[in-house]
Amino acid sequence: MTNDVRRILVVMAHPDDVDFGAAGTVAGWTDQEIEVVYLMVTDGDAGGFDDAVTRTEMASLRRDEQRAAAKCVGVEDVRFLGYPDGRVEATLALRRDLSRVIRQVRPDRVVMHSPERNYERIHPSHPDHRAVGSAALDAVYPDARNPYAFPELLADEGLAAWTVPEVWLVGGPTPNHYVDITDTYDRKLAALKAHASQTAHMGEDGLEQMLHGWLSGNARTAGLGEGRLAEAFQVVDTG
């Protein structure tokens, strides 16, 4: 599903979201010389477990962790919008900010959170995730492709309309596509370890046990065979 895909934009709520949900797949894409750009809506300032770290310090730390994690899977372009962690809403302002980046990057595919709540596995359904998924999907259709939506993007910034042919949703209740990441799993793990403020408390064994649990479950669902690991997506045609 990478024919004619040259550039992919990944829109996530927090630093580490892409690495939990899609880093193995991203590593496969960059191996194919597909350009991948990360956009984090927040700096993750509400994360972490150390009361001695101020929220400003945490935001800076998490930006650095995301940049380091991105390098593990071949991504160099990491952007942040700086919205407050834990208080994201699917506003017109967020849709405009996401439309701006879509028009700047001009991707052939956008990866984003599912805007739907997943009752079988609740953790991907963080309110920020669902809000970002909703706003990003609206930015893909109809905002970014409509030259009359947010006309200031064209008039003031010279950003012409852009149509994204497809989106890949992460964490939703109805995945329809699985990517075998067995060969890129080590890079996914390295990316997650780069988020030490969020994962170090689990210990290496705890992190790997959690990852193997759901990734091997995805692989079984996809019929990939014993010992394989997979990430799950819902692919939506938005062309």
The 3D shape can be described as: globular
Please give the alpha-carbon distance between the first and last residues.
Answer: 15 Å
Percent range of helical residues: 40-55%
Mean pLDDT across residues: 95
Q: Spans with pLDDT under 50 lasting ≥5 residues?
A: none
Task: State the major sheet.
Answer: 7 strands, mixed
State the fourth-level CATH superfamily.
LmbE-like
Number of domains: 1
Judged by helices, strands and strand pairing, the structural class is: alpha/beta
Architecture in CATH? 3-Layer(aba) Sandwich
Give the strand order of the largest sheet, numbering strands 1, 2, ... along the chain.
3-2-1-4-5-7-6
At CATH level 3, the topology is Rossmann fold
Output the helix-strand order: EHHEHEHEHHEEHHHE
Name of the level-1 CATH class: Alpha Beta
- Rg: 17 Å
Total count of strands: 7
GO biological process, one term: glycoside metabolic process
Keywords: Zinc
Pfam family, one: PIG-L
Organism: Actinomadura rudentiformis
